[in-house]
Design a protein that fits this description.
By secondary structure, the protein is mostly helical. The chain folds into three domains: 19-176, no CATH class; 180-263; 268-335, no CATH class. The protein has helices at 6-22, 26-42, 48-68, 73-94, 96-107, 122-138, 147-155, 157-160, 168-176, 182-215, 223-254, 272-278, 281-295, 302-317, 321-334. It is globular.
Length: 335
């Protein structure tokens, strides 16, 4: 299910709102949101709901172990286990084919190339889970004692599919208790409609123009047509991604959640570094806080740290060398 579909707009969302506001107790509203999120997630591929629940259960337990045995070897082992488990699942589904093809090309091994369907949203909820466990380990947030509240955090359909990457510390209070105001509700409707307009009226139209350009033989394209196609592709990517983020933020406001901004007019940036401070802000801040700074940031081997971060940023966007090189290109520009 996607936000721009008629089923979501005219059936799923109205029913979710009616059910949610028809309940009085916060715990019951949380259950309604969990049920809606799991139904939303299962709409296309029901089998992946079990993976989401398994992942949430493992990280829930990891965080409790870390808090119970803080400062001990058990806490470090739980953190390491969480990292290995989360990245292992993400790697198995998203990167195993890429790795097998790379090994075959490099060494002629003849490995079978797995063709897994990619679980929807796994790139986003994996990073959310990792940030939660890391924050508990650092003592920046208390471990959530209620599994259902933690499942709510990880499964919220608002940002599950296309972000932003929400950190538990940012919405911990709202998971426990939310304030609902008319200003938030009306603001949420407005923000959702802005995102929907970006997606349907700009991104989709630009995408159709891109497809028409790509269908033309490259030798028959004029310079102007080539640049036009490139411009339309840039508009498509930005308005598609930022449109989904706007819709997610708007949906959150409808239910009492306030997610951080994910885009800040990146195309007005005057440098590559400024561009990435404005583009997919939640992803950039994740890599900064959980990889770049722990590696040493600017204090120790900054060039190496930047290239590692940007190579992985590219790989996060897609399992191909094109994305890795794209990320490294920006890393070199910023360095």
């Amino acid at each position: 299910m996607v936000f721009a579909s008629l089923v979501f707009l005219y059936v799923f969302l109205p029913l979710n709102l009616l059910t949610y506001y028809g309940l009085r107790r916060e715990s019951h509203r949380n259950l309604a949101l969990i049920a809606a999120s799991l139904i939303f997630y299962a709409w296309g591929e029901p089998v992946w709901v079990s993976l989401l629940i398994l992942s949430s259960a493992l990280d829930y337990v990891h965080a409790l172990i870390i808090e119970r045995w803080r400062g001990s070897g058990w806490a470090k082992a739980a953190l390491a286990s969480s990292i290995v488990t989360n990245l292992g699942l993400l790697g198995a589904f998203k990167y195993s084919g890429f790795l097998a093809r790379g090994l075959n090309d490099a060494f002629g091994l003849g490995l079978s190339v797995p063709e897994f369907a990619l679980p929807i949203g796994i790139s986003f909820y994996t990073f959310q889970a990792l940030s939660y466990v890391a924050d508990v380990y650092r003592g920046e947030v208390a471990a959530q004692r209620s599994y259902l509240k933690f499942l709510l955090f990880l499964s919220l359909y608002h940002q599950l599919v296309a972000g932003p990457i929400v950190r538990y510390v940012h919405i911990a209070r709202e998971i426990a208790e939310r304030r609902h105001t008319l200003a938030d509700f009306s603001g949420g409707i407005t923000r959702f409609c802005v995102g929907l307009f970006k997606k349907v009226c700009i991104a989709n139209v630009a995408g159709q123009l891109v497809m028409r350009t790509m269908e033309v033989d490259p030798g028959g394209l004029s310079v102007a047509e080539g640049w036009f196609g490139l411009l339309m592709f840039s508009l498509q990517i930005y308005y598609d991604f930022s449109g989904y983020s706007d819709m997610a933020i708007g949906l959150g406001m409808l239910f009492g959640f306030h997610y951080h901004e994910n885009f800040n007019y990146p195309y007005v940036a005057r440098s590559a570094a400024e561009f990435w401070r404005r583009w997919h802000i939640s992803l950039g801040s994740f890599f900064r806080d959980y990889l770049y700074i722990p590696l040493g940031g600017r204090r120790r081997r900054p060039i190496r740290n930047l290239l590692i971060v940007w190579g992985l940023t590219g790989l996060w966007h897609g399992a191909s060398w094109n994305f890795v090189l794209w990320g490294l290109y920006f890393g070199v520009l910023i360095a």
